[in-house]
Design a protein that fits this description.
The complex is a heterodimer of chains A (108) and B (122).
Chain A: E1 9-12, E2 18-23, E3 33-37, E4 44-47, E5 61-66, E6 69-74, E7 83-90, E8 97-99, E9 103-107
Parallel strand pairs in A: 1-9
Antiparallel strand pairs in A: 2-6, 3-4, 3-7, 5-6, 7-8, 7-9
Chain B: E1 3-6, E2 10-12, E3 18-25, E4 34-39, E5 45-51, E6 58-60, E7 68-73, E8 78-83, E9 92-102, E10 106-112, E11 116-120
The chains are: A mainly beta (108), B mainly beta (122).
């Protein structure tokens, strides 16, 4: 099992808000990074350093954190947001990094 | 812009080794840590290892310790990942990725290479 825990799947109605969480002991000290991955494509960075978006990522994506739980929120989900989302951070045991197991987001 | 271009698909027999390459362009290669990440079919992302800018230090996920070796050649802006004693379960897409960070509290990976499919089959 991963050091970072994500729910396997969530669904959201078109235009509504969905929160994806990532839980882990290392997240008390480090920020989570979030990636979006669509079938057959390489992952794409969507949120880094708590709540920073790379150029080209819509502002409906935002990040937040509380204790050992970090979250990615999609406010006003669009059909094109349907994808797998992975969190990533440094591991608790030093110079290793880890991914969460991924969350499949379905837009209804 | 920053870009990573990986070598082509490989088919290997169990027990063999594979060495993948990843050529960087559009940024100062010697200034960045580089990672390798893999993804087995219908599975999640799995961090494999990291190499520092000079190539003098590496770190690997526990499951790859002793079986994976990451190296780099600054003269050609290329990073390599060699995986030995291949098993069927090593069948996956392997990605090279550039590391970025802020202080000692936030790391992210961008850009990603296009991925290299390694198939282990007899």
């Amino acid at each position: 099992s991963s050091e970072l825990t994500q729910d396997p799947a969530v669904s959201v109605a078109l235009g509504q808000t969905v929160r994806i969480t990532c839980q882990g002991d290392s997240l008390r000290n480090y920020f989570a990074t979030w990636f979006q991955q669509k079938p057959g494509q390489a992952p794409v960075l969507v949120i880094y350093a708590k709540n920073n978006r790379p150029s080209g990522i819509p502002d409906r994506f935002s990040g937040s954190n509380s204790g050992n739980t970090h979250s990615l929120t999609i406010t006003g989900a669009q059909a094109e947001d349907e994808a797998d989302y992975y969190c990533y951070s440094r591991g608790i045991s030093g110079n290793r990094w880890v991914f969460g197991g991924g969350t499949k987001v379905t837009v209804l | 812009q920053a870009q990573l271009v990986q070598s082509g698909a490989e088919v290997k027999e169990p027990g063999a080794s594979v060495k993948l390459s990843c050529k960087a362009s559009g940024f100062i290669f010697s200034g960045y840590y580089m990672h390798w990440v893999r993804q087995a079919p219908r599975q999640g992302l799995e961090w494999m290892g990291i190499i520092n800018p000079s190539g003098s230090w590496t770190s690997y996920a526990q499951k790859f310790q002793g079986r994976a070796t990451v190296t780099r050649d600054t003269s050609t802006s290329t990073v390599y990942m060699e995986l030995n004693s291949l098993r069927y379960e090593d069948t996956a897409v392997y990605y090279c990725v550039r590391d970025q960070s802020i202080g000692d509290y936030a790391w992210w990976l961008d850009p990603w290479g296009q991925g290299t499919l390694v198939t282990v089959s007899s």
